[in-house]
Amino acid sequence: MTISMYEASVPVFAARLKALAAVLNEGERNAQTRKIDPQVFLNARLAPDMFALTRQVQIATDHAKGAPSRLAGRTAPRYEDDEASFADLQARIAKTIDYLETFSAGDIDGSEDRAIELKLGGREIAMPGMQYLLHFAMPNFYFHVTTAYDILRHNGVPLGKPLFIGGR
Predict the structure, then answer these.
(1) Which among 28, 30, 84, 90 counts the fewest CB atoms within 10 Å?
(2) At what angle do helices 53-72 and 138-154 cross, to 10 degrees?
C-alpha cells in the first residue's frame, strides 16, 4: 500500500490545529481563573533564545498552510503575523483550517516526487515531496505545536496528553 500524501498531510494538520485551539482555550481560561494577564502567557517562552507562544502558533499555522500548498503547486496565503491575543490566535488557526479545507486528495496525491524548493537561511534547497512532508514540514509543525503546549504547561496550565492528542 502506498501512502496518500493528502491523508498524511491535510487531515493531520487540521486535527492538530484543532487540538492546538483547545490547548489555547485552556491557556486563556487558566489565565482568567488565576487572574494572570493573558500577555504573560502569550509572551512566554521556554528559553531566552526560543520564540514566545504567539510566534510558535504563527509558525505552526505557516507550516500547516505551506506544506499542502507546496505539494499542490499553490502559493500559500500570507498572514501578517500581527496576532496579539488568544482570540487573534484562534482566528488564525480557524483561518488556516478553512484554507486546508480547500484541498482535495486530487490536489496533493501524486506529489511524492514533486520537487519542493525552499529558501532556508539564505540558501536554496530542493527535495522530493515525500521527503519534504515527512522529514521537514511535519517535524517543524509538530515542534512548534508541541512547544506552544509546553510553554503553557510550563506556566502552570493544567494540560494533559489527551487534550494535545484529541483536542478535548
Answers:
(1) 84
(2) 160
| Rounded Cα–Cα distance for residues 163 and 10 (Å) | 20
Segment 79-103, tens digit of pLDDT: 999 999 999 999 999 999 999 999 9
> Other CB atoms closer than 10 Å to residue 135's CB: what's the count?
11
> Residue 139: pLDDT above 80?
yes
CB atoms within 10 A of CB 15: 14
- E strand or H helix that includes residue 2: none
Q: What is the value of pTM for the model shown?
A: 0.95
Helix (H, G, I), strand (E, B) or coil at 125: strand
Any residues with CB less than 8 A from the CB of 99 and at least 6 apart, and which?
65, 77
Domains of the chain: 10-166 (1.20.120.450)
Strand boundaries in the chain, DSSP class E: 115-120, 123-128
Cross-strand partners of 120:
123
